[in-house]
Design brief:
Number of strands: 15
Bound molecules: pyridoxal-5'-phosphate
Structural class: alpha/beta
Largest sheet: 6 strands, mixed
Strand content: 15-25%
Strand order of the largest sheet: 3-4-14-9-10-13
CATH topology of one domain: Rossmann fold
Helix content: 40-55%
Number of helices: 19
Length: about 450
C-alpha cells in the first residue's frame, strides 16, 4: 500500500513511513493511493466477532504487509486490554432507531484512546526494528494530548511534547496530561488558543532542518494511522445493526474532522453508510462551509465542548482531496488561500461531491445543555457535552435507517457542564479516582516558536 500527499509534492511512502512522518513534507496530509474495498461477504463475516478480530481484518489491507499478522494481533490485543468494557465500543439505544456508540471506555475516557493505543504500539515496533528514536509533538484541545501521553509514556524510542491552550481544557483533561511521572512525556500549556497550538506544531514540521534535527513525528489526528484505526468502530457498529444488509448513518461530534473522516474511509471501503452527519458546536465553520460553500475562519468562541472549539479543521483537507477528484493542485491552492486570507471557496463540483457524503448541523450552548438534560431524563444516560452536540444534531438528521451517534468522551471528563444540566455529578471510574491527588508537572510557554524549539532541544538532550 502506497500513500500520497493531498498536495502532491511530497515523497510517496509506505504505511510505516507515513505513520512516522505524520504531516507530509509539502504541508499536505497522507492518504492511501487507492482505498481497498472489502467484499460484501467479508463485511458480513465481521458480525459477532470480538472487537480486536474486527480490527485485524479491517486494518490489515492498509498495512501493506509491513507488520507480521501475529505481531499485529498481539498489539491489537494489548491496545484494548486497558479498556473498561468488554465490547470496547458498546452500542446503547437512546431512542427509536437512534443508538449511541460509547467510545469512552479507554484509559483516558475519550475516543482518542482507540487510535492512540494502537499507533503507540505500532510505532514502538517500527522504531525498535529500525533502531531509531523520534520526538513526537502534538497540539491538543484536550483529549488527544492525554491519550498520546498515556499511550507513549515510558516508551524508550520516543519523547512526547503536548501543547494545550492554557486554561481552555477541563481539569480532568489537564491532570491526565500533567500527572504522568515518566521523563519522556512533557506537557506544555501555551498562552493562546487551540489554533495557535496547532499552528506552532505545523511551524515546527514545516521547518525541515529542525524536523530532521530532532526526528519529529506527529500523532495528531492528521496522522493517517489514527484515521485508519478509527474506521474499525464504524465497521463494528454498522454490522451489529445489520450492515451490509442494511445501511446505517452516523452523526459525529466534529472538530479536526479526523473521526468523521474515518467514517468516510469506511464508506469508501464498501461499508453501506447512508449519511455522515458533521455535528458542530457554536464554532460552526464546517457547517457553514457545507451549507454555504465558503470556508471562512472566525475567532474561536470557547464552549462547554472544548475539544470541538476549532476553526482550522485539518483533516477537512482530506475530504477536499476526495471531493476534487484527488486534484492535489486544487487542494494546495485552497490551503494557500486559507493561510493568506483565512478563507477559501469550495468550487461548485467539489461542494456537490462533499454534500453527497456529508450532511451537517450545529448545536448552540443552550441546546447542548438542554440535550444533556433531556437525554438523562428520558434514558438515564449521562452525555458529555460533545456527545450531546451529536445527539442534538442527529435528532434533526434522522431518516429511515438506524442512526448511530458517536459518544466521544465520558461525562466525568466534563463534570461541571453535566452537573449544571442534570444536577448529577458524574463520577470518574474507580481506576482513576486518585487523579486529583497526584502532583502536576507542566511548562507554561508564550506563543513563541523560538521558545518552543529551545524547550524541545533542551529536554531531548537530557
Ligand atoms: C477530539 C474530540 C472530538 C473531535 O474529533 P475530531 O476527530 O477532531 O473531529 C470530539 N469530541 C471529543 C470528546 C474529542 O476528544
Amino acid at each position: 500500500m502506497r500513500y500520497v500527499s493531498t498536495r502532491g509534492q511530497a515523497p510517496v511512502l509506505g504505511f510505516e513511513e507515513a505513520m512516522l512522518a505524520g504531516l507530509a513534507r509539502d504541508g499536505g496530509l497522507y492518504v492511501p493511493e487507492r482505498v481497498p474495498v472489502l467484499a460484501r461477504e467479508t463485511i458480513a463475516a465481521l458480525a459477532g466477532l470480538p472487537y480486536e478480530e474486527v480490527a485485524l481484518r479491517v486494518l490489515s489491507p492498509f498495512l501493506g504487509g509491513e507488520f507480521d499478522r501475529a505481531a499485529l494481533a498481539g498489539d491489537l490485543a494489548a491496545a484494548h486490554a486497558g479498556f473498561g468494557h468488554p465490547a470496547r465500543a458498546p452500542l446503547v439505544q437512546i431512542g427509536p432507531g437512534h443508538f449511541l456508540l460509547e467510545l469512552f471506555h479507554g484509559p483516558t475516557l475519550a475516543f482518542k484512546d482507540f487510535a492512540m493505543q494502537v499507533i503507540g504500539r505500532l510505532m514502538n515496533r517500527a522504531l525498535a526494528r529500525a533502531g531509531r528514536r523520534v520526538t513526537i509533538v502534538g497540539a491538543t484541545s484536550g483529549d488527544t494530548g492525554s491519550a498520546a501521553i498515556e499511550a507513549f509514556r515510558g516508551l524508550p524510542a520516543a519523547d512526547v511534547f503536548i501543547l494545550f491552550p492554557e486554561g481552555r481544557v477541563s481539569e480532568v483533561q489537564r491532570r491526565q496530561m500533567t500527572t504522568p511521572v515518566e521523563a519522556n512525556v512533557h506537557a506544555i500549556a501555551l498562552r493562546g488558543d487551540f489554533d495557535a497550538c496547532q499552528a506552532r506544531v505545523k511551524d515546527l514540521f514545516n521547518d525541515l532542518a529542525f524536523r530532521d534535527e530532532v526526528g519529529l513525528a506527529a500523532v495528531n489526528s492528521i496522522n493517517w494511522a489514527r484515521v485508519l484505526v478509527q474506521t474499525v468502530y464504524y465497521f463494528a457498529a454498522a454490522v451489529a445493526l445489520g450492515a451490509p444488509h442494511r445501511a446505517v448513518s452516523f452523526t459525529v461530534p466534529t472538530g479536526n474532522f479526523g473521526d468523521i473522516y474515518a467514517g468516510a474511509v469506511a464508506r469508501a471501503m464498501g461499508l453501506p453508510v447512508a449519511r455522515l452527519v458533521v455535528a458542530t458546536n457554536q464554532n460552526d465553520i464546517l457547517h457553514r462551509c457545507l451549507t454555504g460553500g465558503v470556508y471562512a475562519t472566525e475567532p474561536v468562541r470557547p464552549s462547554i465542548s472544548p475539544s470541538m472549539d476549532i476553526q482550522v479543521s485539518s483533516n477537512f483537507e482530506r475530504a477536499l482531496h476526495d471531493a476534487t477528484g484527488r486534484d492535489a493542485a486544487a487542494v494546495a491552492a485552497m490551503m494557500a488561500a486559507l493561510k493568506a486570507t483565512g478563507r477559501f471557496k469550495v468550487p461548485e463540483p467539489a461542494l456537490a461531491a462533499l454534500r453527497s457524503v456529508y450532511a451537517s448541523g450545529r448545536a448552540s450552548e443552550a441546546e447542548t445543555s438542554a440535550t444533556i438534560a433531556a437525554t438523562h431524563a428520558a434514558t438515564g444516560e449521562l452525555l458529555c457535552p460533545h456527545s450531546a452536540v451529536g445527539v442534538k444534531v442527529a435528532g434533526e438528521a434522522q431518516g429511515s435507517e438506524p442512526m448511530v451517534t458517536l459518544a466521544t468522551a465520558h461525562p466525568a471528563k466534563f463534570p461541571d457542564a453535566v452537573a449544571a444540566a442534570t444536577g448529577v455529578r458524574p463520577a470518574l471510574p474507580p481506576r482513576m479516582a486518585d487523579l486529583f491527588e497526584r502532583p502536576e508537572r507542566v511548562s507554561v510557554l508564550d506563543d513563541d516558536l523560538g521558545a518552543l524549539k529551545a524547550l524541545i532541544r533542551g529536554r531531548i538532550a537530557r
